[in-house]
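Tip: read the tokens left to right.
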């Protein structure tokens, strides 16, 4: 969850305000030229600050990128969690649809942030471990929904998957607190890929000449992915 604690002292408030201005400037750069073009010197020029002052807040461009990435992931995670909480716990189809639409809505509203976290890697930047938790929030919520449906006994019988596929998901299984049959994990991964992949293609303009009503089409895709996971409705 995003840290919402308010700064208490005047110095803390001033630091928070300048940090917010730096992040806003970096987002403007990202919108105009892409994430790879972000630089602390450009931020300093934009804000009328000396470069050394900006470096006191973010020691390097990579630190600034990391903060932007974490905030983007957390904003998406907040939207997904709010959507999931808006539906009754036993309404697995409704929860999945709400979460899926929240992902698309957030992506359409924040295309540059979406490109930052799901687009091509920024040359020369390696994301630190600090990004892992925020980066998995949306997927964790979607996986939790699948696990809860399994525990509620509403999913169809599990199917066998090839042993090679089962072995390939060892790392995924380590993140899930209860045993989940492999066929459900495959279905969940496929469904999440459909949702995130659709949003990426839509933002890239790949549907402009082929889909006249992107919202209706996405709604159908999300509903089909819910069926694919075994949610009734």
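Filled-in amino acids:
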């Amino acid at each position: 969850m995003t840290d919402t604690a308010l700064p208490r002292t005047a110095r803390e408030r001033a630091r928070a305000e300048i940090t917010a201005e730096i992040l806003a400037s970096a987002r403007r750069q990202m919108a105009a030229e892409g994430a790879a073009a972000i630089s602390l010197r450009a931020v300093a020029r934009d804000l009328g600050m000396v470069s050394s002052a900006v470096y006191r807040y973010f020691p390097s461009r990579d630190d600034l990128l990391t903060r932007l990435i974490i905030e983007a992931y957390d904003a998406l995670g907040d939207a997904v969690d709010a959507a999931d909480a808006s539906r009754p716990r036993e309404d697995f189809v409704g929860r999945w649809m709400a979460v899926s639409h929240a992902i698309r809505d957030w992506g359409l509203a924040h295309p540059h942030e979406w490109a930052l976290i799901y687009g091509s890697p920024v040359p020369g930047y390696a994301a630190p471990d600090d990004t892992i938790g925020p980066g998995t929030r949306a997927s964790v919520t979607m996986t939790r929904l699948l696990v809860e449906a399994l525990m509620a006994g509403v999913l169809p019988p599990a199917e066998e998957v090839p042993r090679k596929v089962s072995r390939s998901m060892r790392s995924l299984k380590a993140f899930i607190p209860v045993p989940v049959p492999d066929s459900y994990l495959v279905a969940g991964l496929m469904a999440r890929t459909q949702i995130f992949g659709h949003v990426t293609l839509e933002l890239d303009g790949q549907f402009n000449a082929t889909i006249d009503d992107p919202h209706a089409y996405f709604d159908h895709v999300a509903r089909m992915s819910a069926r694919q996971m075994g949610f009734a409705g």
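The chain has twelve helices and no strands. The CA atoms of residues 71 and 158 lie 37 Å apart.
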